[in-house]
Amino acid sequence: MSNRKPAHLLLVDDDPGLLKLLGMRLTSEGYRVDTAESGQQGLRVLAKERIDLVISDLRMDEMDGMQLFSEIQKVQPGMPVIILTAHGSIPDAVSATQQGVFSFLTKPVDKDALYKAIDEALERTSPANDDQWREAIVTRSPLMLRLLEQAQMVAQSDVSVLINGQSGTGKEILAQAIHNASPRRAKPFVAINCGALPEQLLESELFGHARGAFTGAVSNREGLFQAAEGGTLFLDEIGDMPAPLQVKLLRVLQERKVRPLGSNRDLDINVRIISATHRDLPKAMARGEFREDLFYRLNVVNLKLPTLAERTEDIPLLANYLLRQAADRHKPFVRAFSTDAMKRLMAANWPGNVRQLVNVIEQCVALTSSPVISDALVEQALEGENTALPTFVEARNQFELNYLRKLLQITKGNVTHAARMAGRNRTEFYKLLSRHELDANDFKE
């Protein structure tokens, strides 16, 4: 027997004989083993026991192995699953591993291959000994700590992760933390905001381009999929990606190949995808603005970041942490907040979340001449935040909303007239209205 650490395995198979035989074999190897004769029974075991690894048959009545895998990821994101099947094929294996299954083995299972897969799964999912992987995330909020537990589990597999959260909640920081905790941590972490670039430029950034692909393409250039090879590509604000690029991204995720603009050659890629959005993608799907098939590719595991208002117990911790950082950079003599200043920070609404808190503290440090930040200075900084510049994406969205409202007011809700004034066809204009949840009928007299 190798030097494997004791681990708790769950075996799921609707063949009692095979289940018993495999269970006995793994028990003799030193593992603690639970068994289940159906997917539903397996889920009940998972709800009661602390399981380290699931090994499941693929073909089972009622709930097959892939359906079981999907259900497991909903309740225990990142839980490693090995699928066994007597009817294996290369397309099946590729599809399973792309969806996040750790390993796909064909029956009769080679003993050494199974032990090797178990060893690798347990090694990749063993928790880190410290919190260095998420050192940029300062929290004592039970809500955030539970989220970080999920993030650390998810990090150990290549399953796609979609992070939901309002602007300023720290979506990119969480994505970076997942990368830091993953087996890919020694490889690049590459981020791009899908809503901040025009369509052609975004396509070139993601996929690269060949010389002569368009005006100004004077040489070959690798895209971010290639730049992130072996590591993680973070697609921020994926909900703002133009529809034509959604189709191309789906193809890349399905085939694990990328074709640069202007090239006729596909390039193999090995990249883990983490995406994020502030939008409600199911609603966007219902409006026809986001592809359903792409959503399910990206949303294998969903992590929802709380707002700062939902984790107010973190405000003193975050404020003092950020104060130390800002003071070290600019004014080392600054030491603390006054009691009233901290009370004001605790009572604020924080619509801009952690990003707004960072800005307020940077402003306080810049303006203070005292070692203690006063309540008056915090009040001044918070008032200044009310007139602070929004991000590019926020500003564009607000402009579109105001512009559409003005058009509908002028035209009294006449979509044909409004679309003509905007230089858009009716279909495009209706999509804009849907995106901003505007109803032309509300503007008719």
Automatic annotation (TrEMBL):
Domain of life: Bacteria
Coiled-coil regions listed in the entry: none
Signal peptide stretch: none
Lineage: Bacteria, Pseudomonadati, Pseudomonadota, Gammaproteobacteria, Enterobacterales
Domain Sigma-54 factor interaction: residue ranges: 137-366
Residue ranges of domain Response regulatory in the record: 8-122
One Pfam family this sequence matches: Response_reg
SMART domains in UniProt: AAA, REC
Protein's name in the database: Two-component system response regulator GlrR
Family matches, as NCBIfam families: PRK15115.1 (NF011695)
Protein keywords: ATP-binding, DNA-binding, Nucleotide-binding, Phosphoprotein, Transcription, Transcription regulation, Two-component regulatory system
GO molecular function, one term: DNA binding
PANTHER family linked: TRANSCRIPTIONAL REGULATORY PROTEIN, TRANSCRIPTIONAL REGULATORY PROTEIN GLRR
Annotated SUPFAM superfamilies: CheY-like, Homeodomain-like, P-loop containing nucleoside triphosphate hydrolases
GO biological process, one term: regulation of DNA-templated transcription
CDD domains in the record: AAA (cd00009)
Modified residues (4-aspartylphosphate): 57
